[in-house]
Amino acid sequence: MLLVALNLRAAVTSLGALLDEVRTGLALSGTMAGIVTTLPTIAFAGLGALTPWLVRRWPATRVLVLAMLALTAGQLLRVATDSAAVFVLTSALALAGIAVANILLPMLVKQHFPHRTALVTGAYTMALTVGTTVAAAAAVPVAHAFGSWRAGLGVWAGLAALAVLPWVPLALRDRAARRAVTTAGAPAPRVRVRPSRTRLGWAMALYFGAQSLSGYAIMGWLAQLFRDAGYRAETAGLLLAGVTALGVPVALGMPTLAGRLGTLRPLVLTLTAFSTAAYLGLALAPRGLAPLWVLLLALGQGAFPLILTAIGLRARTAEGTVALSAFAQSTGYVIAALGPLLVGILYEATGGWNAPIGFLLGALVVQTGAGLVIARPRFVEDER
Fold this sequence. Notes:
The chain is an all-alpha fold. Helix content is 82%, strand content 0%. Helix 4 (30-57) runs antiparallel to helix 17 (338-350) and helix 11 runs antiparallel to helix 12. The two termini are 31 Å apart. 56% of the residues are buried.
């Protein structure tokens, strides 16, 4: 699980750090660059919604192996082309693999560690954050060392291939076990959980969507914001990496803290305060106090491990967890798709960052409202 989690954002943040080089190398316009940075949310929404159906047809471990193979192949193929269209398509293949793994990990945690959900969620969220950080920090130096942005993006395919290996024997074992069950007789029918028919499900989707909207806008454009403020490319990439690096202890501690609190309301409001201060700081003084804004952004992005933890806390069963995870993430990523795209359009239209940051502040208002709804303890299975 930790190896998989290391891969779940590397393909995204490495592109964010090298976006300027990729735009030049493939002759991408500002709008096309916005589309490229929106691809993660589009892929996560579309493929994420299909994951419960895939799990009903095949063992989850087998689905995960195929997802990681898609991620490996997509990352290799997208650096082997000079065509913008092929780059987009192969990036979509890589991101499709991430989309499926995003949904599966909360289910696998609930299934294999039912009494340690918060601890394991914190561990894999921390691994995800470490992978995000390393990719953002290392992409530019690797590209410069090899003289091409292609190396800075393609190197992460090796990490994805490594993550496949431990899951192959597990997939073969689970496939044999499923065949044995089928031979013995049909399993008892399961009651399907439909989060789309519940208030909790929609609140989770809105919170996930709003925090992902800002998260992917930050991953896609923060380095460019710091470059525009006068920082060198390497320094801008390190500042972007700082957001995720400083988020590592937040990712590790947030699930445990959320699991111990009777209500999530204090966490929701505190994270909103951090994000608000960071956005205002980036608008008013992006260069002078950049390390402070990076720290506040990292704290505010604690909304991501919070919502991942809430998915496990708000479902009683593995089936309920995968259903809630799929609905919250797939619907949320539809919302989140607006983030990088609109930030790119607003940036190109205005030539500055005040309008994009104002848009992100508006999304934060929606996030906070949804967070207050999910703060009260209850279960999605009880809201049918």
